[in-house]
Amino acid sequence: MKKFQFATIALALLTACSNSGGATGTRTAPTSANTVKVTVIYGSEKKDWLEPQVVKFNAARLKTVAGTTVVVEATAMGSVESADGILKGDLQPTVWSPASSIYIPVANLEWRKKNTSDLVDGKVNDLVLSPVVIAMWKPMAEALGWPAKQLGWADIARLSTAGKGWDTYGYPEWGAFKFGHTHPFFSNSGVTAMLAMAYAGSGKQRGLTLDDVANPATRKFVESVQSSVIHYGSSTGFFGDRMFDRGPSYLSAAVLYENLIVAQEDKRIKGQSAQLPVVAIYPQEGTFWANNPYAVLNAPWVTKDQRDGAAVFEKFLLDRPQQLAALEFGWRPADPAIGLSAPLDADHGVDTTQPKTVLEVPTADVIQATQSLWKTAKKPVDVTVVLDISGSMQGARIASARQSLQQFIGLLDDRDRLRVVLFSTTAKELSPLTALGPKRDELLRRVGGIIEGGDTRLFDTVLETYKALAKDGDPRNIRALVVLTDGEDNQSNPASKAELTRISDARGGEGGSSIKIFTIAYGTEAPTKALQEIAEPSGGKQYSSNPANIRSIYSEIATFF
Q1: What are the two backbone dihedrals, phi and then psi, of residue 326, each rounded to the nearest 5 degrees?
Q2: Low-confidence residues of the chain, pLDDT below 50?
Q3: Which of 332, 392, 532, 558 is the most exposed place for a label (fewest CB within 10 A)?
Q4: Strand, coil or helix: 481
Q5: Using CA atoms, how far apart are residues 33 and 424, in angstroms rounded to an integer?
Q6: pLDDT value, residue 238
Q7: Which runs of E-coded beta strand occur in 487-539?
Q8: Both 160 and 35 in a single domain?
Q9: What domain count does the chain have?
């Protein structure tokens, strides 16, 4: 996938979030002539803490030195995708607070290509802190020697490439090691995970260079870790939710933030979760901080009044009451005068004496090179797209479906394998499950000529294609089924849906390594509930869509690969 395509996905995801609830904002207090609105785009991982503080701040009606009342409007969004939106000019906030400072050098580099100064000028304050960790179920960590042994990326690489999985450590009942981290072109934790792997592979903790990233030994190390990844994604919270909801059969470990482990363990201690205990692994090779910087943008759309208002809000967030509130959510306060106490303790799976080693943030070109390294080292995908071409898909629906499928094909790599199946009264294979590279141009042409007609044979087709992918797909690859339909099934065997739900449940058999089903309810007549019932158990996701947002839905699905 070319670099410019990732920016395209990110901007499409902004639309997807606004339609599906992925990006969320707080309500602002009423404005008047003597008010200034400060807009904040912040990393979604701190939403539980920040959103109540915005409500509290607006209710207080605090003023600038000039006597202007400050009103804050805050929107939660992925750190890297928000950066792309700002750089494109589609987003124009007063304040940007990504999960960490990691991506700021890249944002500044891209900003300077069209401007004379940096987007984020000088050093900025941190709001709250949380180290980037590897979340692992406590019994599994103990099997690797924790806590007597400090674990790290080398342990993850060895376990990922162990032919017998957990059997190597005497636990055959746990099956294969299943790992997860987010997409490094969309999520801060994905970027930091890749940088930490690159550092570990090169044997360094500072001064990572382009030569280090290009070194075959570094690539081999990264490939070792990537071989156990079950899928990627655009949200760190998504991995946390999936891991803690589905348990160790789905994910053995995932790259998360320390505060997410604290929140999960708090639920378990209170009897709100029946899962095994989970602990934070602070890689012995080193890690990064999610330091949540508060950056007032050095951009032409930010006025002096907004800068003054942003300063008032920043002071409010750094005041002791708000910092203590952050502690309750598992964040480490930015104010060093506030001591670390429960729930930041061993009972909640964390160690406040860690991390022992904090890695140096490399230069922008090294960060971008590391993202590119992921593209060539990551697991390929075997994906089947199942497209409804029944008569109800006529007009704008089929036109938009054709264009969005072409876009989706463009987002896949040449080494990915793709099958396309069209269905109406019957099912037809437009393209077999083969490498995309040699057939890309021909397939794009064929997709551009798809026409509609016939009834809707939905669940029989999905069941058949699922079984075919289970047979023909490579279990070493990410395997996925993407289904789009706009109407109720009127041709299938009534038993097909029940069988599909049973065999696709990711809680048994291969767990998180099983085939993921992503379903798209295309319009209000689509069977949304039924589609959700086959997608969610598989570990995939159900989307509601229409001709206006279908491109962004396909773009979001592509981030899983």
Answers
A1: -65, -40
A2: 1-4, 6-11, 14-22, 27, 29
A3: 532
A4: strand
A5: 58
A6: 82
A7: 516-522
A8: no
A9: 3
Asked if 247 and 54 touch (Cβ cutoff 8 Å), the reply is no
Q: Tell me, yes or no, whether 390 lies in a domain.
A: yes
Same domain (yes/no): 509, 453? yes
Distance of CA 170 to CAs 131, 173, 175, 227, Å?
A: 31, 9, 11, 21
Q: Are residues 369 and 410 in the same domain?
A: no
What number of residues does the chain have? 561
pLDDT at residue 32, as a whole number: 59
Question: Do residues 151 and 266 both lie within one domain?
Answer: yes
| Kind plus residue range of the DSSP H or E element containing 267 | helix 258-269
First CA to last CA distance, the chain = 11
Q: Residue 180: which H helix or E strand, with range?
A: strand 179-180
Structural tokens at position 117:
């100064």
Report the CATH number that the domain containing residue 59 is assigned in CATH.
3.40.190.10
Give the domain extent around 302: 3-127+292-337
User: What is the chain's Cα-based Rg?
Assistant: 24
Among the residues of 113-227, which ranges form H helices? 138-143, 153-161, 188-202, 210-214, 216-226
CB under 8 Å to 516, separation ≥6 — which residues?
A: 231, 478, 479, 480, 481, 506, 538, 539, 540, 560
Query: Residue 443's closest CA among 407, 472, 479?
Result: 407
Query: Which residue(s) pair with 544 in the sheet?
Result: 521
Instruction: Give the CA distances from residue 360 to residues 204, 390, 480, in Å, rounded to whole numbers and listed in that order.
Output: 10, 55, 36
One domain, residues 389 and 520? yes
Q: What is the pLDDT of residue 511?
A: 78
According to the model, what pLDDT value does residue 235 have?
Answer: 83
CA distance 260 to 438: 43
Rounded CA gap, 289 and 104, in Å?
A: 14
Q: What is the largest CA-CA distance in the chain?
A: 71
Q: Which CATH number does the domain housing residue 553 bear?
A: 3.40.50.410
**Does residue 406 sit in the same domain as residue 314?**
no
Say if residue 215 is exposed, middle or buried (CB neighbours under 10 Å; 0-12, 13-18, 19+).
middle
Q: Which residues of 65-82 are buried (b: 16+ CB within 10 A; e: fewer)?
A: eeebbbbbbbbbbbbbbb
Instruction: Please identify which residue in the block is written with the tokens 């979760």.
Output: 273
Question: Are residues 368 and 455 both part of a single domain?
Answer: no
pLDDT at position 189, please? 94
Is the separation of the CB atoms in 137 and 184 below 8 Å? Answer: no
Give the strand pairing for 516-522 and 541-545.
parallel
Q: Which two tokens stand for residue 135?
A: 């979340």
Q: HEC string of 540-561?
A: CEEEEECCCCHHHHHHHHHCCC
Q: State residue 186's pLDDT score.
A: 85
Write a three-state SS string for 284-330: CCCECEECCECEECCCCCCCHHHHHHHHHHHHHHHCHHHHHHHHHCC
